[in-house]
Amino acid sequence: MSSAVTSRIIETRVYEGQKPGTSGLRKAVKVFMQEHYTENFVQAILEALGNQLIGSTLVVGGDGRYYGKEAVGKIIRIAAANGVKKLIVGQNGILSTPAVSTIIRKYKTQGGIVLTASHNPGGPDADFGIKFNCENGGPAPDNVTNKIHEITTQLKSYKIASDINVDIDKIQSTTIQIDGNSFIVDVIDSVNDYLELMKDIFDFSSIKNLLQGNFKVLINGMNGVTGPYIKRIFSNELGVDDSSIVNTTPLEDFGGHHPDPNLTYAKDLVDAIRNGPYDFGAAFDGDGDRNMILGKNAFFVTPSDSVAVLAANLNAIPYFKKTGVKGYARSMPTGAAVDRVASKTGIKFFEVPTGWKYFGNLMDAGLLSICGEESFGTGSDHIREKDGIWACLAWLSVISNLGKSVEEILLSHWQIYGRNFFTRYDYENCESEGANKMMQFIETEIQKPDFVGKTFTSAGKTYVVKLADNYSYVDPVDGSQANKQGLRILFEDGSRIIYRLSGTGSSGATIRVYVDSYEDDPTSFKKDAQEVLKTLVNIALDLSKLREYTGRDAPTVIT
Asked: CB neighbours (10 Å) of residue 527?
């Protein structure tokens, strides 16, 4: 590479549909590989930074999926030509989403570009994604994503320094003169900063004592980005045997698997724990922000219960002894278990729309300590993303502190707070037209004047509608409003049915149906959630006419 490089302006054409969703822009790899497609979107992200762009520092990394390294190369060349001062890049292009947030916050950068389609499959025929995180380390809020989208609809050209080629497999710092200015690319160890933060938060010696005893764990990286983090944290730092950490090599196609840590896609972990000597299991998704927690005999901890149990036991984590507990929150579709912890402990509680950015605003205002989403996301105000490995370490801290098994912890928790039975039915890749018609039909039904007070009966159980709406949210921090966030039917006994169309798939429509029912009768606590919720699920499916509108007899995934 020559020591002085000149940038060029490349004429381009507008691509329709470059509108980032709740987690950035996700499309098939083949879409991103079209001429100028990735370049346009990266240029739009940089232009959206406005007067913050010139002289800025940005973080770049991703989940290791197919096309990631090529995309990092393009980002380096476009950032150089647009006046960015410095890029901090994860070695091999690898940085978990929580690590990106950690690095943005630690080095006070102007933000970061995360190359991930999260839990969507990877490989040449699968998905890719690009997400922008702001200077607080969290996903870009709506006003930023709207600006990025607006720029993509008008873009005539992008700037690029085509002659720059940096070896991102090697930890090094490279300085290049471009158009008379210095441009620095720092390729860093992907794990160091994140590991340092975890050691600040948790008592590693107490977790290590637990793991060195008779307590057996199985940690599954699902061939996603968390592999290097699992090796360093669980193997090197906590002394877990190598046979207890599996699928820890990041692969471009995640080994052909769907890197989503749930009972369907992490079935190998579930089976291994059901049939093996393990007391605890955890799995993480492609980019490391989601988690699944299992106890002995594959006892499943729902994400709704997970955040509630952690909220009730934050005194087991040194970080919260220092910071105090400011508030609890969950996304609207998530089971209402943490609400009950909040009301018993007298701590502030918030319900927000789906999307981690809403939690971030509350955290930045000092109102929130711990939060969760039913889609296997749990996190706290240590960063501005959900964090799978953090959740696993938090659970191990609680187990170490209480000296109980996962199942015993849950049973004790339910004795105090009651149990919110929760399930989610996902219908993936539905025809968009049918899905939209179904949502319109439900909305028309629930807006009828006589819908509130209506009774629904199934298998001898009766539910009375207390409230029904299309959920909207006014942010208590900045007053911004989010409308049409999901159709809700709330019943007088605290049960709920919620319908949403998801924005995280790359094709078709994913319909999600959420069902939540509260029980305070201890004889019900050990019952299977699907059994308890069957009547309410039937009501939800009948009321929506889902089968008629979609032609689907069964969901793709039940969680």
From this structure: 14
